[in-house]
Each structure stands twice: as structure tokens, then as C-alpha cells.
């Protein structure tokens, strides 16, 4: 499994022959790419409906959409998506096959109003656990993308304990999500081998030094390796 960070919360994840794109938003200072430069994904995964997570979703409407039913309905109307997992999206706790990957939708503690003229609802905000096999199997490589979230006990009691991810992508920007210290506690609770920060340095309220996150992870006693990616940089999970 390979992950590539295109800044903010935009990720390209390759599992076998399957290409997944998470929260496409290319108007951020960490990427040199335009949406048309991105390899055409097979699946687009949306954690929630805020503009900094769906701004360029419409550029990939030929892909299969993975999102809550409410967000699927919005994206069908606004962006022209015609295909969604299950025909209607999925919801928290569900697991679906996405080509060579399995995707489990998990809870995120955040908001999800879509600030349009009609103030549409995106349903519940979410995170995703992506695996190259059965998500709980010992021989699977499993990645947890927390989306936009605060620290929540479900990371320890359900996601870490039951889904047992090998790696976690967590927001560290503070203000709208966890900051470095809370994100470090999340990494410790999840008991992952690798931790990667996201959702920082995009605009002034979320400016952070990711090394502060790395120091905070070490302070918890976690053995996780903190991998700080540059924009458009890839990392291979084994």
C-alpha cells in the first residue's frame, strides 16, 4: 500500500491495482498539482462535506463515490457523480469492497453542514480504515485516516482495539480539529506503528510545526514512527 499526500487532507492511496483519492482539495500550499494532474482514481472517498474536503470532487465524478448517503446525494446533484458504493453510499460501521481494498467507515467527532444557500447536511462526518485484505486479519496492511476529528475514546476502544490499524493519518492543525498534543494521545491509543500528520499549514488558524507532533508522540511513550511528508511525497506501508 502506498500513500501520497497532496497537502491538507488530500491523499492518493494505492492498494494493489486500485487507486483511491481521499478528500480532493488542491487549493492548498503543499501541492504543486492541479486536479487534472492527478491520476484518475477508481474511488473517491469523502470524509465529510466541508469545502476544504470536497472542493475538487467534481473533477473525478467518473469514479465510484464512497461517502455517507446524504453526501452521496449532494455530490450526485452538484458534481454529477453517477456511481456510489452500494448504489447509495455507506454509513458508520460498514465495510465495503473497493477493488483490491476494503474500506470501513468509522466515526469522526466533527461537524458536517455543507454551507450552501440551502445549508445541506452531509450526514455524519467519518474516518476510513483502508486495508489490503480483511480489515482485522493479521496479514492485512491497514491504514486509518481519521478525517477531521477531535480526540475520542472510540480511537482506543474500537478503532485501535478491534480494527487494529498499522498506520494512522491524523489531523494536527488544532482550531478545527485535534492539535499536536491530542493527536499524539490518539496515536498512543491506536497503538499504530506509523503516524502521519495532516490538516495543517493550509491557512493561518491551523499553522503548526509537525515536529511538535513528533515530540508529543514520543512524550506519550508510543513506539510509533512519525512520518512527516512533504507535499506530493509518497510513503510505502508494508
TrEMBL record:
<dbReference type="GO" id="GO:0016787">
    <property type="term" value="F:hydrolase activity"/>
</dbReference>
<dbReference type="InterPro" id="IPR050114">
    <property type="entry name" value="UPF0173_UPF0282_UlaG_hydrolase"/>
</dbReference>
<dbReference type="InterPro" id="IPR001279">
    <property type="entry name" value="Metallo-B-lactamas"/>
</dbReference>
<comment type="similarity">
    <text>Belongs to the UPF0173 family.</text>
</comment>
<dbReference type="Pfam" id="PF12706">
    <property type="entry name" value="Lactamase_B_2"/>
</dbReference>
<keyword id="KW-0378">Hydrolase</keyword>
<protein>
    <recommendedName>
        <fullName>UPF0173 metal-dependent hydrolase C493_16681</fullName>
    </recommendedName>
</protein>
<dbReference type="InterPro" id="IPR022877">
    <property type="entry name" value="UPF0173"/>
</dbReference>
<dbReference type="InterPro" id="IPR036866">
    <property type="entry name" value="RibonucZ/Hydroxyglut_hydro"/>
</dbReference>
<feature type="domain" description="Metallo-beta-lactamase">
    <location>
        <begin position="7"/>
        <end position="199"/>
    </location>
</feature>
Amino acid at each position: 500500500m502506498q500513500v501520497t499526500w497532496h497537502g491538507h487532507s488530500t491523499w492518493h492511496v494505492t492498494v494493489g491495482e486500485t487507486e483511491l483519492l481521499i478528500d480532493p482539495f488542491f487549493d492548498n500550499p503543499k501541492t504543486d498539482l492541479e486536479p487534472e494532474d492527478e491520476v484518475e482514481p477508481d474511488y473517491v472517498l469523502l470524509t465529510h462535506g466541508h469545502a476544504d474536503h470536497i472542493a475538487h470532487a467534481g473533477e473525478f465524478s467518473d469514479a465510484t463515490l464512497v461517502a455517507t448517503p446524504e453526501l452521496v446525494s449532494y455530490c450526485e446533484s452538484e458534481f454529477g457523480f453517477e456511481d456510489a458504493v452500494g448504489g447509495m453510499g455507506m454509513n458508520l460501521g460498514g465495510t465495503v469492497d473497493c477493488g483490491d481494498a476494503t474500506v470501513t467507515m468509522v466515526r469522526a467527532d466533527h461537524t458536517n453542514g455543507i454551507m450552501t444557500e440551502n445549508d445541506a447536511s452531509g450526514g455524519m462526518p467519518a474516518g476510513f480504515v483502508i486495508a489490503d485484505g480483511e480489515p482485522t486479519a493479521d496479514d492485512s496492511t491497514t491504514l486509518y485516516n481519521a478525517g477531521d476529528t477531535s480526540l475520542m475514546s472510540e480511537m482506543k476502544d474500537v478503532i485501535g482495539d478491534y480494527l487494529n490499524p498499522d498506520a494512522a493519518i491524523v489531523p494536527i492543525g488544532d482550531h478545527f480539529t485535534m492539535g499536536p498534543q491530542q493527536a499524539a494521545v490518539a496515536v498512543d491509543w491506536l497503538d499504530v506503528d506509523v503516524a502521519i500528520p495532516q490538516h495543517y499549514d493550509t491557512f493561518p488558524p491551523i499553522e503548526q510545526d509537525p515536529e511538535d507532533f513528533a515530540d508529543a508522540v514520543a512524550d506519550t511513550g508510543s513506539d510509533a514512527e512519525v512520518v512527516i511528508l512533504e507535499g506530493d511525497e509518497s510513503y510505502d506501508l508494508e
